[in-house]
Design a protein that fits this description.
Layout: E1 4-10, E2 13-15, E3 20-26, E4 33-38, E5 41-48, E6 51-58, H1 59-62, E7 68-75, E8 85-93, E9 98-103, H2 106-110, E10 113-117, E11 123-124, H3 125-133, E12 139-140, E13 148-149, E14 153-158, H4 159-170, E15 173-177, E16 180-184, E17 196-199, E18 204-206, E19 210-213, E20 220-227, E21 233-239, E22 244-249, H5 256-269, E23 274-281, E24 292-296, E25 305-317, E26 320-333
Parallel strand pairs: 12-16, 17-24, 20-22
Antiparallel strand pairs: 1-2, 1-7, 3-4, 3-25, 4-9, 5-6, 7-8, 8-9, 10-14, 11-13, 15-16, 18-23, 19-23, 20-21, 23-26, 24-25, 25-26
């Protein structure tokens, strides 16, 4: 029998039972969010002069904006290798039940201003990001690409505005994995990690939002990006104008015509028979945005394949626990 368990720390307090938790994370957003519902009043244990005392308090008055938050969810006191959420209190709503709105590590950058400028010297994306996270608890991913930058002059802006600049001007995917900041292509090969395995009709609660599409019905738009010597982005687009957008980065291109040909080839590669949509499972298997998911169907083995998980939504409470995973681009077939 599986019994739901939680371990939630807010400020200096730890909770092993709550009313409700909702967590949303995506590779398309650098803002992770969590909402925690707690009773409006609670009896909390305090250590006073070595003696343990208990006081009844208004929950909303105990917590403050900026208090650190960490959420672990699991079964039978067994928790995954990483927390479901790490971040800070963004807002406390004194309602009944008390609602605590939380934000991931983008919260630290939102409160920080930086001079987002490369100066007269050439620099790299990684060096700019190192300057951005200085003085915070944020660390950089080892997978950030080596992109040369120059003539960056945005002035004094907030840390989150700097991340928006990267997304808009460098066409990169930017997101957090806990306190690890990543900026780069949407998919990172993870040979050291086993793909999450979902089997239709076995470990999925719902799969009615999962659709199988034929290659001829796929609408995809590819943006091929090349940065010239002045750090100006040259963009060529191929595919369907109304399709899902995929961005690729190209080096050593001699002409815009060649860049367009690269975009056209990539658009053709991304048209395939495969799944799209969302699947609803349990807390196990543990999955986060950026993970690989292998989808299997005993009735249609030819449809098996591995996909990128683009977003997750976790719901935990008295009514049970569910993980909703959004399936993105197909990475490989099952036999590859």
């Amino acid at each position: 029998m599986f019994t739901l368990r939680c371990k939630i720390t807010i400020g200096g307090f730890m909770f092993t039972s709550i009313n409700d938790v909702k967590i949303k994370r995506s590779i398309h957003s650098f803002i992770d969010t969590a909402t925690i519902l707690l009773p409006a009043s609670a009896r909390l244990n305090f250590k006073e002069n070595v003696k343990l005392s208990t006081k009844s308090v208004s929950t909303a008055k105990v917590f403050n904006e900026g208090d650190p938050v960490e959420i672990w969810l699991g079964y039978n006191n067994e928790y995954p290798e990483a927390p479901e959420f790490k971040g800070f209190i963004k807002r406390v709503n004194a309602a009944s039940p008390c609602e605590i709105e939380c934000e991931g590590y983008s919260w630290q950058l939102r409160r920080k201003n930086v001079l987002w400028s490369s100066g007269k010297e050439k620099t790299t994306l990684k060096k700019m990001l190192e300057m951005l996270i200085d003085g915070t608890d944020i660390k950089l991913s080892n997978e950030i690409p080596d992109i040369q930058l120059e003539q960056v002059c945005e002035g004094n802006i907030s840390g989150t505005d700097a991340l928006d600049w990267i997304k808009k001007n460098l066409y990169l995917t930017v997101y957090f994995s806990g306190n690890i900041l990543y900026a780069g292509l949407a998919y990172i090969p993870q040979p050291d990690k086993t793909a999450v395995e979902y089997t239709i009709g076995w470990n999925l609660v719902k799969d009615d939002q999962l659709k199988f599409r034929k290659e001829k019905d796929v609408k995809i738009q590819v943006k091929a990006v090349y940065f010239d010597k002045r750090n100006k982005a040259v963009v060529k687009t191929a595919g369907d104008s109304s399709g899902a957008i995929r961005t690729i980065f190209v080096q050593n291109i001699e002409s815009e015509k060649e860049l367009l040909q690269v975009a056209e080839r990539k658009a053709q590669e991304l048209r395939y028979d495969g799944y799209e949509g969302k699947v609803t499972g349990f807390l196990v298997p543990f999955a986060l945005p950026g993970y690989r998911a292998t989808l299997k169907d005993a009735k249609y083995k030819e449809r098996d394949g591995t996909y990128l998980i683009e977003s997750t939504e976790v719901k935990f409470g008295t009514g049970g626990a569910r993980r909703i995973s959004e399936i993105g681009v197909k990475i490989s077939k099952n036999d590859e």
